[in-house]
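Hi,

I'm pasting everything inline rather than attaching a file, because the server keeps stripping attachments. The sequence lines come first, and each chain or strand is labelled.
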Amino acid sequence: MKVYQANILFTSSSTHFDVYERGYIAVDGCGIIQGVYHTLPEDFAYDQLVDFGDKLLIPAMNDMHVHAPQLGNMGIAMDMQLLPWLNTYIFPEETKFADEAYAETIYHSFVSELWRHGTMRAAVFATVHTPATHILARAFNEAGMGALIGLVGMDRHTPATLCNTPAEWVAGMQTLIESLASMPLVKPIITPRFIPSCTPEMLRCMGEMAKQTLLPVQSHLSENQQEIAWVHELEPEATCYGDAYYRYGLFGQTPTLMAHCCYTEGEELHLMREQNVCAVHCPTSNCNLASGIAPIRKFLQTGVQVVLGSDIAGGHHLSMFRVMQYAVQMSKLQYVSSNSQYPFLTLSEVFYMATKAGGAFFGRVGSFEPGYAFDALVIDDHGLSPHHLIASSPIERLERFVYLGDDRHIQHRFCQGQEITQP
Amino acid sequence: MKVYQANILFTSSSTHFDVYERGYIAVDGCGIIQGVYHTLPEDFAYDQLVDFGDKLLIPAMNDMHVHAPQLGNMGIAMDMQLLPWLNTYIFPEETKFADEAYAETIYHSFVSELWRHGTMRAAVFATVHTPATHILARAFNEAGMGALIGLVGMDRHTPATLCNTPAEWVAGMQTLIESLASMPLVKPIITPRFIPSCTPEMLRCMGEMAKQTLLPVQSHLSENQQEIAWVHELEPEATCYGDAYYRYGLFGQTPTLMAHCCYTEGEELHLMREQNVCAVHCPTSNCNLASGIAPIRKFLQTGVQVVLGSDIAGGHHLSMFRVMQYAVQMSKLQYVSSNSQYPFLTLSEVFYMATKAGGAFFGRVGSFEPGYAFDALVIDDHGLSPHHLIASSPIERLERFVYLGDDRHIQHRFCQGQEITQP
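And the predicted assembly:
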């Protein structure tokens, strides 16, 4: 048993921070938290005490929507909306992942960059290329980090070089299921690009696989108006975009992540709640692609679960702390424009989304309650407040780090109990 | 004459970037640009050629609305709107600047932090304290950086510890005018906090001083609805918030910066145009304080000049590159919500705001045209693109730096021709 001492903060619920000032957290040999304490119990047996002093110890980040092959597109080409942006910038880049050497280089950088920004687990879109997708899974596995790895299926309205057939997708998934069985923290996820890119046959194959394997599903939903109109044309019998996935068994029949949901309301919102489909809020991406902002407070009031995603390269930055900022800020703009009808998101709410809510897709991950995996970051916020003249509580220090800090302030990173050094 | 070689980018107009790949810029002994060249003219006489290789050379940033005493409030207390936030967090902190030792520490940190983020000139609010305001001016002067220094006037609806009388403000300004006469890059600016904090007598004194000295003016305008309603109560004869300043000679009678303008429209917008009043767009602050977003495209279409401000600690970050990002992103949300009526801002437009448009308040500053002061940053963007596998143009590299870079990528900083090392 190892014990870590620090200023411990986490969100067992979204309503508040659990704070243990100069508290203790005990982690067993499997990386599972045994307890968190204000004072270490008398006669508590442990092998090692690691004292992080006055630093902050928080759960690591979970990025629940991110496109690994788009790493090189980050921060450029911020002048288009979704559909032309995909055709002009993204699809040509993704085509390069037919080349395994290219995939090797970019995917290792991708895992390293996630690590740098404190993200220890992610739900990832790869491309249609099976060999490259294996490379991505191995990169996570070798780093000791967690992932849901999505071999993308897409077989229409896409350049031929970026299409696979349903049979190719099924075969690729089978190899992934086999090979990932030996990777404890890396699992496959069923990944239709989005309805416009998938024929009914592709969607049927995917729903069938979800039913047989109980694997989770991830895709995109109601990101922008042009896309929604297109889905209505393509799937006229579906009552809403979400229903188009539902009819194929891809909307909550197994655990499901749907990114964006900027225009989800009415029937679609209720279908999400009934089916326990999780909305992945990607506010940086939704700004950059001029998509619009999902009504997150309304989702929460309706009882729809919300997690966060960086969605690079729609999003411009991998840091989930940056994504948290935007989630709060965008909710404030909605608060104003709704004449205060929808209270804005609090720091504990967005922190919960990026930790415990997202972590649920990886098991017991994202909190410091007993039984949870010890996924953690040590934050050294020295230098973020001028000369320490202004006294700050641990929560204020965390807030300041979220708004002002960066990878320089993340001193240690743990995943499932193991300290992860530069992958 | 010194000559610098690099990939040179600037915005002589807002519509596009002027790009000189591996170009040359010649700067005379007074720090004034003599020319910018694709190829150095034959027989061109110079003393020294400094080659920055493949790096980017761009104009330095101008922050046109920033509260120096709020440095310690940055990144915390993001849970209130303007008026309660001022009373709960900001005014207690500003009170501390009665203590000169405290002001010395914070103001030197402030100048150093501006420097770190590549801002070489700023229009700054200090507090009501004359000695502390002198300290702020000296800090800029010693650093060799430029500033408009605002001794704040406020004499109502404010804690007594943060009020000055009109006579105290006038006396303080006179000492500043005298002592700043010997500081080539630091000048005073007339600074009413905002209408609710200033009695008619204070505003009359300020307008009188503007008329006599021709000094510029800075203040806040139409930041949020509650504040606007309050101004209508306080100044019932004014036809709009802007008109309340105008009646006292503080709205374009001399060069004027008005921060926020989130709800400026109709008569106020036309008064701004007629009076050539400059809007300081502070999008980070307007998000954080749930103020709303100024309709910047409409301002530009109307012919109102727009510059950018970090507005810490309403804004959470001093980087003007971060502010540029938000300016583009918020304009994209307005583009969507207006059904594409207002095209979103381009990178060259927001770059122009942060360089040439803001720089105009300091003389010929913010561009690389002949006759302009050489205020410049050398950007080393190595590492921002994975393994340089993806070829990028200078404009793409600049865009990537704006979205992904930080102070680590700013390698050199020049103000008025002098390289400024850590102040």
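Residues 252 and 274 of chain A are 8 Å apart (CA to CA).

If the labels don't parse on your end, tell me and I'll reformat.
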